[in-house]
Structures are given as C-alpha cells and as structure tokens.
Amino acid sequence: MTGRDPAADGAARSVPVAGGAVPVLVLGVDAAGRPWPPAALAALAGAGLVVGAARHLAAVPVPPDVETVVLGPLTPALDRLTAAHAAGLPTVVLASGDPGFFGVVRRLRAAGLPVRVLPAVSSVAAAFARAGLDWDGAVVVTAHGRDLGPALHACRALPAVAVLTAPGAGATEIGAGLAGWSRRLVVAEHLGSAAERVTWATPEQAAARRWADPHVLLSLAAPAGPDADPATPAGVGPVRADNQPAAAPADGWALPESAYRHRDSMITKAEVRALAVARLRPRLGRLVWDVGAGSGSVGIECALLGAAVIAVERDPAAPIAVNAARHGVDVRVVTGDAPAVLRGLPDPDAVFVGGGGTAVLTAVADRRPARVVVTLAALDRIAPAVHLLRAAGYTVTGSQLTAARLADLPDGSIRLAATNPVVVLTGERP
C-alpha cells in the first residue's frame, strides 16, 4: 500500500498540541540512508533553530541563515531550546533513527517541552537489515551513558541482542566480555553514511580492534556443530516462541525434579530452589554464578528469568548442558575445582553456593557480589558460614526448610513423605 505518511504531513504543518503551543519537531536521521522526505525538508527550511550532533548537522540541508546548536552536554542545548520555544521560534532537533526509542524525546518531555516526532529507520532496524537477519525475537539494550554490565549480561544470556553502544562501551569491550560464551557479533559502523561498514566477527576478533563511533552491535547465538564458523553470516539463534524473550518463563520456575536429569537425587529440591531463586533476584542484565551446580537446576531457572549464568561444577559428566538445552537457555558451564576455577570469571551480581565449604564461600565473598545464597544440610557448617559472611560485610538471614510431600499408600490412602531439611542462608551487601 502506498500513500502519504500522516505523521509527516502533521510535522510539515507544525500542528499545535494541547494549549496551542507549536511543538518542538524532532526529526529522525535515517540510519538506512534513504532520501529526506518532503515534510522533513520543509521543516528544516522553516526552522529558526536546529539542534543536533555535529554529524547530523553536517548530513542535513540546514539553510545557512538558520541558527544551529551542536549537541555536546545536553543541558545547555535544552536551555536554548526552551528559550527559543518560549519566544515562538520554530525549533527542530535532529536525532538518530527513531528518537523515541532510547533517544532524546524522553529528555525533551522531562524538560517540559511539547514535541512532535517524525521518526526514521532506527539504527537497530538498519543493522539487522544490513546483516540480512530477522529480529522479531531480539532484545534491544543500550550502553550509552550507562554501566556496560547490564548490556553485556544481556548478550551473555540471550540468543539475539542489539546493543546501542558508546565510546568505551562498544564492540571492543563487549567482545572481550563475551570470552567463554558461544557468540558471533555483527558490528555496524556509520550506518546510512558513505562510510557505512558491516562486519561479522567472533568476540575475540571484536575485542582485538577498535571500531568507529557510532556503531551498533548485534550479539547472536553462535551456530552449532563442529564445522560451524561463528564469524560467518547465519540466522538468528533459537528464540522463545511466546514472543517474550526476557519475561518470566511460560512454564514457571521451581520446577519438579523430574524436569531435570540428575544422578542419585543430587539436585536442589523444588521447595528449596523456589526460595533460593527468589533470594538471588535474577533478571535481564544480571550475572549469576551457580557454584557446585550439579544438575544446574538453580542456574537454569535463573537463566529462564533472564539472567546470564555461569554454572561451576567439578564433575565433567554433570548433565548441566543437557538440562539447559532441554529448557532452551544458554548457561556457560565451567568445569573445575572451586575455589581455584573461580579466578578469572567475570564478577557476578549474585552467587548460589550449593557446595564446597568455607574455602569456596570465602572466595565468593572476596568478589563482593550483592547477594550470596548458600544451602546447607549439615548443622555444623551453619555458624561458620554465617560468621564468614558477616565478617565480609554481609547482612545474613536464614531459614530452615522442611517439606513434606504427598505420597500414595498401597490401600489408596495418602501420607506425607518428609524431605531432608535444608538451611538457606542469604547474605546481602548493605
């Protein structure tokens, strides 16, 4: 279907908003390099003030007699916009792609300015298009002006993530942080310009070079199989079919033990797991260690809730990877003896300790995660663990969980079958 864009028509007429004020027009600079639409050209021709980054001002046809403000720190530009708007001067703000998506619209509205937006193709949409990939199951995060950790953990947790980067928080740093995870990256530089470049790379390749700013990073689950090349183009990895890539799992959590392969009942029971996962507070943007993982059930349920997870287990035959694949999550498995194997792992936000004694707990506390959850069956280990965590600066709470499950008797009656009591300690850093 073809026809005029009603939003573009409205932008060209500078339609007043409630109260009669002419809004600030926010123009998206097209990341796909398409020609400027007539509405945008008309708005620029009639503007009294145009605000934008230097690269955007250089790329658009701003009349020579129009005042321009180059964006650096946003506050001075907001002050000038506010004054111009109060004086009735037609004002235009240039921004990348869709300015309402991780863009300047939020800040303009917070400053009390009425806005009308003429969006363009976003850099994320353009990056996936340039790579020839679908992205209906992808998650979009930003590292621009924010701590890199949550964006990096999203790349570690999910099979398709787009990252809006910033200097010092881009493909080089994310590539280095993805060492040990099976990922392939697409780095899209200078989208929509003559210098546009789209590169497929492994995390190691991305970490070994510098990239032009601005760029968009796509982090994708690497193809499986012994002959797969993670640096070559291929489709996006498996995504959740319920269109909720970072939401709570459709089948819930605290799943029955039968949902996991395990040996000799060596698995955290569902009742204990429910409390442990609640205390760990997993979500997208956080990294959880599951130390002494066994079947991996605690870590897998954290991954189902969106967290990035490293499962540490001394037994190379432990079925963690099988269980993770069964539940459709990506858990990085590190095999070796703790605490030695913990050295060199990225710092966690929360740690579940299912075994290893005080040496492991000391090594965990030394990394200063926000939360530590410990399960103990032996009473003589409780006091040393509590004292150790308190000495490390944690506030410690604890509960003993004793569950009794329904069990059928041969005559059709029902009894209660007790499970072994377990103490759950939670250490939280103030």
Automatic annotation (TrEMBL):
Question: What pathway does the annotation place this protein in?
Answer: Cofactor biosynthesis; adenosylcobalamin biosynthesis
Q: Which residues form the Tetrapyrrole methylase domain?
A: 38-202
What GO biological process terms does the UniProt entry carry, in alphabetical order?
cobalamin biosynthetic process; methylation
Quote the CDD domains the UniProt record gives: Precorrin-6Y-MT (cd11644)
Instruction: State a single Pfam family of this protein.
Output: TP_methylase
Q: Which domain of life is it from?
A: Bacteria
A single GO molecular function, which one? protein methyltransferase activity
- Provide the alphabetized UniProt keywords: Cobalamin biosynthesis, Methyltransferase, S-adenosyl-L-methionine, Transferase
The entry's protein name is Precorrin-6Y C5,15-methyltransferase (Decarboxylating)
What species is this protein from?
Micromonospora rifamycinica
